[in-house]
Specification:
Structural class: alpha+beta
Number of strands: 9
Family: Belongs to the Nudix hydrolase family. RppH subfamily.
Shape: globular
Order of helices and strands: EEEEHEEEEHEH
EC number: 3.6.1.-
Organism: Duganella aceris
Strand content: 25-35%
Largest sheet: 5 strands, mixed
Function: Accelerates the degradation of transcripts by removing pyrophosphate from the 5'-end of triphosphorylated RNA, leading to a more labile monophosphorylated state that can stimulate subsequent ribonuclease cleavage.
Mean pLDDT: 84
Enzyme class: hydrolase
Low-confidence stretches: 161-167, 171-187, 191-201
Number of helices: 3
Helix content: 10-25%
């Protein structure tokens, strides 16, 4: 489904934990990292597509997250010709995206990269909000920067500075240790329009 200018409607997802760190996924068998994203199907709203992609790509459902904000307008990027299938060259130009900022209300072990037979990611980690754009495929970097900048206004403390802790990556084939059931979402997430205060203790 393309618009008149040749852009396919799409959603992007920036998922926050309680420390305002973002979910950062490594693409299967590649050395590039990115946020979850995916196309909007005919008849879907951007929000419906976001929940579907969230479940398909990282295994989280609507009850596992709370919407904090979204971009006001579409953010577009063009795809270089050598990444476009020959049969759609001349028609397809790239993606136009609505980006959602979500607060995760579940626990880390609720993430499931193997929910489908064709996973998008084989590892993930939490990363400081301002992700390193040099590990994002080049033609997406500008949109990532614009999405992060626009959505940062929903955070209650400046999302800059350095991550002072080391977070190991969670791999696709890494077994999940048994953990107790997660707390009810309302006890983990704060109100949708504010992030919890930073805890330096």
């Amino acid at each position: 489904m393309l618009d008149r200018e040749g852009f396919r409607p799409n959603v992007g997802i920036i998922l926050l934990n309680a420390q305002n760190e973002v979910w950062w996924g490594k693409r299967v068998r590649e050395h590039s990292w990115q946020f979850p994203q995916g196309g909007i199907k005919y008849g879907e709203t951007p929000e419906q597509a976001m929940y579907r992609e969230l479940e398909e790509e990282i295994g989280l459902r609507a009850e596992h997250v709370k919407i904090v904000g979204r971009t006001r307008d579409w953010l577009r990027y063009e795809v270089p010709d050598h990444f476009i299938k020959r049969e759609i060259r001349g028609h397809y130009r790239g993606q136009k995206q609505i980006w959602f900022l979500l607060r995760m209300c579940a626990r880390d072990n609720d993430v499931n990269l193997r929910l489908t037979d064709h996973p998008e990611f084989d590892a993930w980690r939490w990363h400081e909000y301002w992700v390193p754009l040099d590990v994002v495929i080049e033609f997406k970097r500008d949109v990532y920067q614009r999405a992060l900048q626009e959505l940062s206004r929903f955070l209650t403390w400046p999302a800059n500075g350095h991550d002072r802790r080391h977070h190991g990556s969670r791999y696709l084939r890494q077994p999940h240790p048994p953990r107790p059931n997660p707390e009810p979402p309302g006890s983990v997430c704060g109100p949708a329009d504010e992030a919890p205060a930073k805890n330096d203790g």
